[in-house]
Task: inverse folding
């Protein structure tokens, strides 16, 4: 082999090696965040996570990626907060009902009557952020309520004309227990995936669910009545591991903060549309809507809110009143 040919081969090899190393270095500069949701990917309440993921891809392409690891099939919903706190994952769509053992004040998200946008103005958001970091070791990025005070409803298969669930067994998550107890019903805890069969077999007489989304589980097929008194706000938030957050460059943190705000705003528009559409779909499916007079509606709402605020004050005498003041 001639000397010139050898030089050319070595030059090409070096160029190729530098190109490979360059690609590798560039790839290693991309920050990968790992995330999960407490519900399956196709469930309506999971959508804010994917809004966040899409906005990161659009605005931080080449800088940050958010990899979806899965939902409760990967880590059970009640265990996801610990997975976040321990750094197993970096981001979760957190449902407060699933992590109040670690951060009792998170339940105030349910009770807040102000919109997420108003919460940022009153100081509520800043207080929740401080509490989450201090008690949970996580960063409270955004509140995904969407529209306040239309988070949940009760659905039953026995017609009632007043706020009284005596003799009725109602499927609950921790969210609905105070309301069901306050109205004289019997709470029955079970996963969402078991509600359909439990209604079919008469194991329960009704259930609590988000204001929108019961059609995701085809529950309209085995439900007769909607108690049309919405209560609470959605208790979902985007949360990030605090150590991971602190490790990010300042410009990345700043961009993620803005994306989190934009997800809040997008969720408000998303929920407004869903709420308008939901009732018409349920009526088309044959569900009958139960309405109460003003006095009974107030009794119903008192059962939902009063015990919860009292319970929060017992668990958090330091913050409960302030959260109520700032959150409305």
Result:
């Amino acid at each position: 082999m001639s000397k010139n040919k050898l030089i050319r081969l070595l030059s090409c090899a070096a160029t190729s090696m530098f190109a490979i190393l360059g690609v590798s270095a560039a790839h290693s500069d991309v920050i990968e965040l790992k995330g999960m949701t407490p519900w399956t990917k196709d469930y309506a309440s999971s959508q804010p996570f994917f809004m966040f993921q899409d906005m990161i891809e659009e605005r931080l392409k080449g800088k940050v990626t958010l990899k979806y690891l899965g939902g409760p099939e990967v880590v059970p919903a009640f265990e996801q907060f610990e997975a976040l706190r321990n750094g197993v994952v970096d981001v979760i769509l957190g449902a407060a009902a699933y992590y109040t053992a670690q951060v009792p004040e998170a339940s105030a998200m349910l009770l807040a009557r102000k919109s997420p946008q108003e919460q940022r103005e009153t100081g509520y958001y800043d207080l929740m952020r401080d509490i989450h970091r201090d008690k949970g070791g996580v960063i409270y990025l955004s509140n995904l309520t969407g529209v306040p005070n239309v988070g949940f409803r009760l659905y039953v298969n026995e017609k009632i004309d007043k706020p009284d669930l005596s003799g009725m067994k109602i499927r609950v998550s921790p969210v609905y227990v105070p309301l069901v107890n306050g109205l004289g019903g019997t709470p029955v805890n079970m996963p969402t995936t078991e509600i359909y069969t439990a209604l079919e077999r008469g194991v329960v007489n009704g259930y609590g669910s988000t204001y929108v989304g019961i059609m995701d589980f085809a529950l309209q097929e085995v439900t007769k009545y909607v108690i049309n008194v919405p209560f609470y706000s959605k208790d979902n938030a985007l949360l990030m591991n605090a150590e991971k957050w602190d490790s990010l460059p300042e410009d990345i943190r700043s961009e993620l903060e803005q994306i989190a705000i934009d997800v809040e705003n997008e969720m408000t528009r998303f929920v407004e549309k869903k709420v308008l559409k939901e009732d018409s779909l349920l009526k088309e499916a044959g569900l009958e809507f139960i309405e109460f007079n003003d006095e009974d509606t107030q009794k119903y709402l008192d059962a939902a809110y009063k015990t919860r605020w009292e319970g929060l004050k017992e668990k958090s005498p330091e913050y409960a009143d302030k959260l109520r003041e700032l959150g409305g």
About this structure: The two ends are 83 Å apart (CA to CA).
